Amino acid sequence: MVDIRTSFMGLSLKNPIIVGSSGLTNSVDKIVELEKSGAGAVVLKSLFEEQLLHEFNHIMKQDELTNQYPEALDYISNYSRENNLAKYLDLISQSKKNVNIPVIASINCFTASEWISYASRMEKAGADAIELNVFILPSDPVRSSDKNERIYFSILDSVLKQVKIPVALKISYYFSALAETASKLEWAGAKGLVLFNRFYSPDIDIDEMKVIPSHVFSAPEEIALPLRWIALLSGNLKCDLVGTTGIHEGKDLVKMLLAGANAVEIVSTIYKNGNARIGEMLHYLEQWMVKNHYASIKEFKGKLSYRKSENPAAYERVQFMKHFAGIE
């Protein structure tokens, strides 16, 4: 019998499959079913800073009283935020009462505003850890990369001052020096890094002449980018790494572990194939381990990372000509 247990930020996981933040994890009933299907942990659907601001602004536009009584502004703002937070805290506490796997709270944010203090209340509600999904698209031509990156550290620092439970950052690849930034985030206190979050992808409907969403779910080929960076960073960082995006089958799970990931987060493949996909991926992992004579994940985790690979240059090759034409 092989041992597929792993750990992430000090949390013990019965296996390396974490169901990522999504509509799959927005209710206690769904989370219970995910545990029954074999999930090793869940990341709750995010509490969105953007959503809180949107709801507040929507109320402001609809409520004529705010024009007559400006003092109502603070009341409405606080009520809107507290109402959303209360629902989220209840999801955390009820989930913890009904499942035995780690429950990770998620904050989706782009500023280090005062509402970051909600993190401490998530901890009190029973969250085992917090995942900060920070999304900053470097689209402002007058804002430097340094200013963009400072926001990540400001948010992380604000949350770490509020909680004692481990904090992970789910980040994108939009950094001028990704490896250096990852190291600095670790030094700043991040216990884990999740690579990578997926931004909303716009498309254009040429008949309706409007911008529409595209590629809601990840595609299997998208594994290439997080796989490369997991392999490059593994062994060079002390914090734990989780791979996400493009992980659809059991072989993808094995690849991420070989690259050096502690675990993976999956969402799209469950939407496409149902909860049963979790068990299928775990079965593949177990059969692969038996076939290759591994008794535990520890025996092969990171075996093909940049530092341990017999051909580390493969992870740094960036030009197609060198690969296909054999040009050195």
Write a concise synopsis of the structure shown:
The chain is of the alpha/beta class.
Question: How does this structure look, described?
Answer:
The longest helix has 27 residues, at 72-98. This protein is α/β, with parallel strands linked by helices and 328 residues long. The strands form 3 sheets. It has an 8-stranded parallel barrel, surrounded by 7 helices. Strands 1-2 form a two-stranded antiparallel sheet. Helix 7 links the parallel strand 8 (167-171) and strand 9. The protein has one domain: TIM Barrel, CATH 3.20.20.70. It is 41% helix and 17% strand.
Keywords:
328 residues, alpha/beta, TIM Barrel, 8-stranded parallel barrel, two-stranded antiparallel sheet, 12 helices, globular
Q: Could you state the CATH homologous superfamily?
A: Aldolase class I
Number of helices: 12
CATH architecture: Alpha-Beta Barrel
Percentage of residues in helical conformation? 40-55%
Q: What is the CATH class designation?
A: Alpha Beta
Any idea of the CATH topology? TIM Barrel
The average pLDDT is 86
End-to-end separation: 45 Å
Q: How large is the radius of gyration?
A: 21 Å
Poorly predicted regions: 50-80
Shape: globular
User: In sequence order, what are the helices and strands, one letter per element?
Assistant: EEEHEEHHHEHEHEHEEEHEHEHHH
Structural class: alpha/beta
Tell how many strands the DSSP assignment holds: 13
The strand line-up of the biggest sheet is 3-4-6-7-8-9-12-13
Beta-strand proportion: 15-25%
What profile does the largest beta sheet have?
8 strands, parallel, barrel
